[in-house]
Design brief:
single chain, Alpha-Beta Plaits, alpha+beta, seven-stranded mixed sheet, four-stranded antiparallel sheet, 24% strand, 356 residues
């Protein structure tokens, strides 16, 4: 029984992987290596055939979770505690190396919090995120990703929209517990899923209060592009990620439009409209559009105001093969009269040569 419990504890710490959402499942030669670069245990393995996780090497730190642009990696059954004090909603979580008991609100590393998690907290009304940490300066997980940096960037966007943002504070465990005791249980009842219930059975030896605070169970949150979680969207919105098209380089091949998993780039061709439409609220920063563009016409910018919502297109019929095509407006030269294939390999020109 003890061996079974220990195995469950190890397995429950491992990240869950939705392989069909991975960038490499969407594009075979994608350049994304975010999970590999951030892993302090080098547990992620990438070769020409597959992306795999060495479950024996993985210690469940969760740092791969916030860096995955497509939300293909999710953490365990971690939950954030929500409490109230003087009408303000506080969110609490602690690092396991802070010597906090395992259970609700305790994470392997507080840096595993995704931007989406923080935005969900903000949208639920939380304006304070209080965390207890261990010795981050001497931790091998430190320096890989930093949750405070994500909060600072999010606040930059929230402040631009007139919001007060979310306050983040690190503290020692005793201070964290004292503040937790000073706050009141949120009136909303708890949400419990199957994994959370099983974990509670394992932790039967840990004293638990009769009252259970409201929990934000992160494993139950569907993945959403961060830009969609910004409650207010204006022309001056600072977006987490946004694609930009260099009209002078683009040849209208539409590869970016076809491969974008969230339609952040769209092709609109009607009798009255011909354009590429850019939707920064849908962009996850996966860089598939950058990887697939042969002409290096696309770039991804982060935490900036969008300066380009569309790229007007001109349509035509290829003088060589007769196929319809479109190019960014104002495209000059012979290519403006040829489709992108014939502009590169115009085999028809040999038919009109004069032989002597």
């Amino acid at each position: 029984m003890h061996e079974l419990i220990e195995r469950y504890k190890h397995d429950s710490r491992l990240p869950e992987i939705a392989g069909e959402q991975c960038v490499h499942a969407l594009m075979e030669n994608a350049s994304c290596k975010s999970c590999i670069d951030v892993c302090p245990q080098q547990a992620w393995l990438l070769n020409e055939e597959t992306l795999a996780l060495d479950t024996q090497a993985c210690d469940g730190c969760g740092l791969c979770v916030p860096v995955c642009p497509e939300g293909a990696i999710s953490g365990g059954d971690h939950a954030i505690l929500l409490r109230e004090k003087q009408g303000e909603l506080f969110a609490f979580c602690a690092c396991e190396l802070s010597e906090a008991n395992s259970g609700d609100g305790v994470f392997p590393c507080i840096n595993s919090l995704r931007l989406q998690d923080i935005m969900l907290l903000f949208n639920k009304g939380a304006r304070y995120l209080m965390v207890a940490t261990g010795d981050c300066c001497n931790c091998n997980r430190s320096g890989k990703v930093d949750v405070s940096e994500r909060i600072s960037l999010l606040n930059k966007s929230l402040w631009a929209m007139g919001s007060a943002g979310i306050k983040f504070e690190r503290m020692v465990l005793n201070q964290w517990r004292r503040l937790l005791d000073e706050t009141m249980v949120s009136p909303t009842g708890p949400a419990v899923n199957r994994r959370h219930f099983l974990r509670s059975l394992i932790n039967v030896g840990v004293e638990r209060k009769i009252e259970t605070p409201e929990l934000l169970l992160l494993a139950d949150q569907a993945y959403t592009p961060a830009g969609q979680l910004l409650e207010e969207k204006t022309a001056q919105t600072i977006w987490p990620s946004l694609p930009e098209i260099d009209a002078g380089r683009c040849d209208g091949c539409d590869a970016c439009v076809r491969l974008c998993p969230h339609s952040a780039l769209r092709l609109e061709l009607t009798d009255s409209v011909s354009k590429y439409s850019i939707k920064p609220q849908n962009c996850t920063g996966c860089s598939i559009c950058v990887d697939v563009c042969e002409r290096n016409a696309i770039s991804i910018r982060n935490w900036e105001v969008s300066s380009q919502n569309e790229v007007p297109l001109e349509t035509g019929q290829c003088n060589a093969c007769g196929s319809p095509f479109h190019l960014p407006a104002g495209y000059d030269g012979e290519a403006a009269t040829l489709c992108r294939i014939c502009s590169k390999h115009n085999h028809y020109k040999n038919l009109h040569q004069v032989l002597e």
